[in-house]
Design goal:
The complex is a heterodimer of chains A (about 900) and B (about 120). Chain A is about 55% helix and about 15% strand. In chain A, the strands form 3 sheets. Chain A has a 6-stranded mixed barrel with strand order 3-4-9-6-8-7. A 6-stranded mixed beta barrel of chain A has the order 14-15-20-17-19-18. Chain A has a 4-stranded antiparallel β-sheet with strand order 13-21-12-22. Chain B is about 60% helix and about 10% strand. The longest helix of chain B has 23 residues. Classes of the chains: A alpha+beta (about 900), B mainly alpha (about 120). At the A-B interface, helix 2 and helix 3 of A face helix 3 and helix 4 of B.
Chain lengths: ~900, ~120
């Protein structure tokens, strides 16, 4: 019996470890005694079970109670030192908030997964062409190939095909239709993705089989809300798409916005309706094995890897190449994850996201390092208190836990405050979006993923950086710290202990200066461009875009429509001139022209050069006031039958025929990969900015409308008076020509330019300077913390100095100069870095001044001024040291 | 804080208060007292007992007896800690007792109270 009792006692000793250390220290002995006494009177096994259950029930409660009292103690401490709490939490808020905002931008551009269940199983299928004028390229898939893929492959639960189309949508019969985007889809589109309509039904299997037979449509949630006012009885109603009547069968759920990162289709229509909607091009889409226009995605079967699926598809592609050598020779297939596919399609976006990711990491790092610096400085000041607690028996673990609790609470507070900053940042980034009536948006938003990721990152780094001072503080030199809490008499608060933090302050000052220099330079560049002549007519111009293809106009009928449109628009009262252009400056429609200048041999493997261009009619240059500096503009005589002509800009002429006149030179224009007849350069236009405000001079080609096949054109009408007044007459004019003809993006050039050029560049400058200022705020916090720490460590030294006759002013100067010394180093580094950055930027952006005195003098001076302010409090504290008190502590 | 703020008391807390009503006791004695009083139904385990004691100390229901007092009265073991009711603790115990008594009279009035054999 006795031995069994011993076993019980020993086991209970182990069981006691479940309880917190303090509790054990307080009551552990008595608890063991109690267990021992009970083991005399009770059955050992029964007792053991009892004790086990008891421990399992009460130990967690004790841990929780202890932790709650820690939290309450910490909160009291934080309330007692509001300044420190605000500064620390504020720094964290800046770090967490800005990284959340930046991450939400990266998320919107590239990272956000498709809004479907199990999005990681949905992959993209691209066709890869070995033989193409521009080398290897990834393309979409053709419809017949897609059908064969569906029939022959077994790696997918489902393969879907889709294509974005512009449509004229008219919900009510009387109202004018407007242009929007729709998605032609295979019948299994929604079901394969796992999306169920919120109202009505999905497409039936038989509804995507016969071309043109089943005019059914699934509306997007946004269309249902905007066009049908969320009518619950919308299923069965009709809607006109490109003049064709469709029946609504279902509504896509809110939250499903298609498979594109930016375009949000208004409607989903069966692929088989392509001919009905788009006429001959729709027929070609369905029939041509070499019409590779469809996007294809698939949901992998469980257990099938991307590599395995790709291997299978490559085999099928080889089979198709054998069976259809004319169209499929040299065609292969590739399978890519959604992220890979996005990166391949827009490597520029991917680079930007990588940059943003780096920025996120940097900002968080700096913020957390600052808080660590602050915590360190406070741990140093509290060294005496901590030493006391340790001396009377508080375990180091307890001290560490208490400091960690403080870090966690600070992190929580910072995260909550950071939410506000993140929301502001997201609003800022959202305003970067280009304006258009089409349902395209970069959906920057603070969703749960963003918040969760940022929160975890911040908490993780806070705990990490909270650990450093915690561990340091937990092993104090008891003897020294009990006596005075200061460094030894020889200690100056400098030396190996603080050089890390000094480097940090210097680095932060330097970095924020670099950002501010960049912001100032950008501001200068943008401002000078925006306040001057943009290079084309900005005021008194009204524009509206048309797309007769949605109504199946033949090219001749479209040309006739446009001719009458321009003539009648030009005859409107108050109108100086009217012109047609495929796109407008700072817009998003341009021709991508492949060309070969005559007498130029290209390197092997390269078949043509590329340049940006636009198709315009003969009134363009005069209407938009783009000067022709040599030769002539297009004329009415440059018709389809006449010799082909082009106008180039000065940059184009300079690049390809330097030192000579470009007039009379010839270029061969390539269309659809095959070289066309050579075109003669008949005029040179002044170079201006075409895409964005900071653009460096680029080569540009103008093609004559009469010699092109363009059917989507923008009408631009110039007036000496208020351009906005032209809105109603132009609309009436269009309606008179064809009531079904939809307009798009009707407005004045001034509004457009303001939105595209002015607002975006302002937002860019705001974003960069916000980051610069945030960085500066963090840097000042770091400086403050460092100098405060140093002052508290040097109290005895200061006391001695005062005692032997130094003036308080001298002490003040000593502290301030120490701090400003660090700032000076940071400023020098920052100016050097800023100059370097400006060199890089001037290669990318036009109008960057490299040696602006405002930037390189005023900014550093301002920085010194602000830093001095930050040093006031610690300096005053140093000067207020009572030498009598400190000397007594020797 | 008023006694009513703490009502209803958890069973272990009430029994500890009752055990201390007659005078100061140490932990084991409290447990034995509760055990005997309830004829073995409530046998306080160490975690429950000392967890409750800790909370009751925080709430001011009981206080630890100063060792100097005890050794002067010749208590049996100096190492053990003795606890006694505070005035607040007594008032709270009384409040809980009346609350329970009222419940009992309601039960009796509705014929729910039967004598146990």
């Amino acid at each position: 019996m006795a031995s069994l009792r011993n076993v019980v006692e020993r086991l209970y000793g182990r069981l006691l470890r479940l309880f917190p250390g303090e509790f054990r220290a307080e009551y552990g002995e008595e608890m063991s005694e109690l267990a021992r006494q009970r083991s005399c009177r009770e059955r050992p096994l029964r007792l053991l079970l009892d004790l086990l259950i008891d421990a399992l029930k009460t130990a967690p409660r004790e841990h929780l109670a202890l932790w709650l009292s820690e939290v309450r103690y910490t909160l009291r401490g934080m309330r007692r030192r509001p300044g420190f709490t605000i500064i620390a939490a504020g720094s964290l808020a800046i770090g967490i908030g800005s990284s959340a905002a930046i991450f939400s931008m990266a998320d919107a551009i590239l990272l956000r997964p498709l809004p479907v269940p199990h999005p990681d199983r949905v992959v993209s299928v691209r066709s890869q062409s070995q033989e193409s004028p521009l080398g290897v390229s990834y393309q979409s898939v053709s419809y017949p190939d897609y059908l064969d893929l569906r029939r022959r492959s077994s790696s997918f639960e489902g393969l879907i095909a889709f294509q974005t189309v512009s449509l004229a949508i008219g919900a009510q019969a009387e109202a004018a239709p407007h242009l929007t985007l729709g998605l032609l889809v295979s019948g299994n589109f929604l079901s394969t993705l796992g999306v169920r309509p919120s109202l009505g039904r999905d497409f039936r299997a038989d509804e995507n089989v016969a071309p043109g037979r089943d005019a059914v449509v699934v509306l997007s949630d946004a269309t249902w809300r905007n066009e049908f006012a969320s009518d619950p009885a919308v299923v069965g109603k009709t809607v006109r798409l490109n003049g064709v009547v469709f029946t609504v069968v279902g509504i896509a759920p809110d939250g499903f916005t298609g498979v594109d990162a930016f375009a949000r289709p208004a409607v989903y229509v069966p692929l088989m309706m392509a001919p009905a909607l788009s006429g001959p091009s729709g027929e070609r889409l369905l029939a041509g094995r070499d019409a590779r226009d469809l996007g294809v995605k698939g949901r992998l079967r469980p257990g099938v890897s991307i590599a395995a699926a790709e291997a299978e598809l490559v085999t099928i592609a080889n089979d198709l190449a054998r069976e259809y050598p004319v169209t499929n020779r040299d065609q292969s297939l590739r399978v890519r994850s959604e992220l890979q596919s996005r990166i391949e399609t827009s490597p520029g976006d991917a680079r930007m996201v990588a940059l943003l990711g780096g920025l996120v990491a940097l900002v968080l790092l700096i913020a957390c390092a600052n808080v660590a610096s602050l915590l360190l400085s406070r741990a140093g000041a509290r060294a005496r208190e901590i030493a006391l607690r340790t001396a009377v028996g508080a375990s180091p673990l307890r001290v560490v836990r208490q400091l960690l609790t403080e870090s966690l609470l600070l992190g929580l507070l910072g995260a909550i405050l950071g939410l506000g900053i993140a929301a502001a940042g997201v609003r800022l980034f959202s305003s970067l979006a280009p304006p258009t009536e089409l349902p395209i948006e970069v959906a920057v938003r603070l969703d749960l993923r963003v918040l969760l990721v940022s929160f975890l990152l911040a908490m993780g780094s806070v705990v990490l950086f909270g650990l450093v001072p915690a561990l340091r503080a937990a092993r104090p030199d008891l003897a020294r710290d009990l006596k005075s809490g200061d460094a030894g008499l020889g200690g100056s608060g400098r030396g190996p202990r603080t050089w890390g933090r000094q480097t940090l302050v210097v680095a932060q000052v330097a970095l924020s200066l670099v950002l501010l220099v960049a912001a100032a330079a950008l501001l200068g560049s943008f401002k000078s461009y925006l306040s001057g002549d943009p290079g084309f007519r900005r005021s008194g111009l009204f524009m509206a875009s048309f797309d007769p293809t949605v109504l199946h106009y033949s090219p001749e009928r479209a040309a006739d429509l446009y001719r009458r449109l321009v003539d009648r628009a030009g005859a409107l009262p108050g109108v100086e001139s009217a012109t047609l252009s495929f796109g407008v400056p700072f817009g998003n429609r341009f021709d991508f022209v492949d060309f070969v200048p005559e007498d130029l041999t290209l390197p092997p493997g390269k078949h043509a050069l590329s340049a940006l261009g636009v198709t315009v009619d003969e009134h363009y240059f005069s209407t938009l006031r783009v000067p022709i500096v040599a030769g002539r503009a297009f004329a009415a005589t440059d018709t389809a039958g006449a010799p082909r002509v082009v106008v180039v800009n000065q940059e184009f002429a300079r690049l390809h025929w330097p030192g000579e006149s470009a007039i009379g030179k010839r270029v061969r224009l390539l269309e659809d990969g095959a070289p066309d007849a050579p075109a003669e350069v008949i005029g040179v236009a002044r170079t201006h900015r075409y895409l964005w405000v900071g653009e460096r001079p680029r080569e540009f080609i103008y093609l004559p409308f009469a010699q092109s096949k363009r059917q989507r054109m923008t009408l631009l009408v110039a007036t000496a008076g208020d351009a906005a007044q032209l809105g109603a007459p132009i609309r009436a004019l269009a309606r008179a020509m064809d009531p079904n003809l939809p307009l798009l993006d009707a407005g004045t050039m001034d509004q457009f330019f303001t939105l595209r050029a002015v607002n975006i560049s302002h937002t860019l400058v705001e974003a960069v300077s916000a980051m610069g200022f945030a960085g500066l705020a963090l840097a000042l916090v770091g400086l403050f913390g460092l100098v405060s720490y140093s002052v508290s460590r040097r109290r005895r030294e200061i006391g001695v100095r005062l005692a032997i006759g130094a003036s308080r002013g001298a002490v003040l100067r000593m502290v301030v100069s120490q701090g400003l010394g660090l700032v000076a180093i940071g400023v020098l580094l920052g100016l050097a870095g800023g100059a370097g950055l400006l060199q890089i930027l001037s290669g990318l952006i036009e109008g960057i001044h490299l040696g602006d005195p405002l930037v390189f003098l005023a900014l550093p001076l301002a920085l010194f001024g602000v830093a001095t302010l930050a040093l006031v409090q610690p300096a005053l504290r140093a000067a207020a040291v009572d030498p009598v008190v400190t000397l007594r502590q020797l | 804080m008023e006694p009513d703020d703490l009502l209803p008391l958890p069973a272990p807390v009430f029994h500890i208060l009752v055990a201390l009503a007659d005078g100061e006791r140490h932990g084991y004695a409290i447990m034995r007292d509760a055990d005997e009083r309830t004829s073995g139904a409530l046998r306080l385990s160490p975690g429950t007992l000392y967890g409750s004691i800790r909370r009751m100390l925080e709430q001011g229901l009981i206080e630890e007896v100063d060792r100097r007092d005890r050794s002067a009265r010749g208590a049996d073991d100096e190492r053990r800690r003795y606890y006694r009711l505070t005035k607040f603790g007594r008032r709270t115990a009384e409040a809980e007792a009346s609350r329970l008594a009222e419940l009992l009279s309601h039960a009796r009035a509705h014929g729910l109270l039967t004598q146990r054999g």
